[in-house]
Amino acid sequence: MGMYDEIWWEGELPEGHPPESRLFQTKSLERCLDRYVVTREGRLCLVGNGLQDDGPFDGGQRVHESVDMDFHGDMRLVSATGRYGEYIARFTHGTLEWIRPRADVPLPRRNLIAPQRSAE
């Protein structure tokens, strides 16, 4: 499995994704079990760390003051339950531009985003 970060999605979810499934995992960021929220405004904010913060992450825990990451790039997301597929989210100058099923992203670009690393 390896290390990953968790992202709670407050914004609009992709068409067909169940609204009750808002927790995602990603290896596109620091892979430190950090906890992030994508706000309704489409901003990626660091809100905590799974190693230091207690309990499951449901987006409501804001143990520390959130930090806007001003993230620019593409991020690969997997539903934390593993049942709802994979997505690619594009952030431009810190704001979410779109989120799409990974299968809808052109193949060359899809394979560049957070490729699986071998065990270290």
Describe this structure in words.
- This protein has 120 residues and is mainly β.
- The protein has one domain (5-112).
- Helix content is 5%, strand content 36%.
- It contains one helix and eight strands.
- It has an eight-stranded mixed beta sheet, with no helix packed on it.
- The radius of gyration is 14 Å and the shape is globular.
- It starts with a strand and ends in an 8-residue tail after the last helix.
How many helices? The count is 1
Which range best describes the helical content: under 10%, 10-25%, 25-40%, 40-55%, 55-70% or over 70%? under 10%
| Strand arrangement, major sheet | 5-4-3-1-2-6-7-8
Percentage of residues in DSSP E strands:
35-45%
Total strand segments: 8
Brief sketch in words of this structure:
It is built from 1 helix and 8 strands.
Describe the SSE topology.
Layout: E1 5-9, E2 23-26, E3 34-38, E4 44-49, E5 67-68, E6 73-79, E7 86-92, E8 95-101, H1 107-112
Parallel strand pairs: 1-3
Antiparallel strand pairs: 1-2, 2-6, 3-4, 4-5, 6-7, 7-8
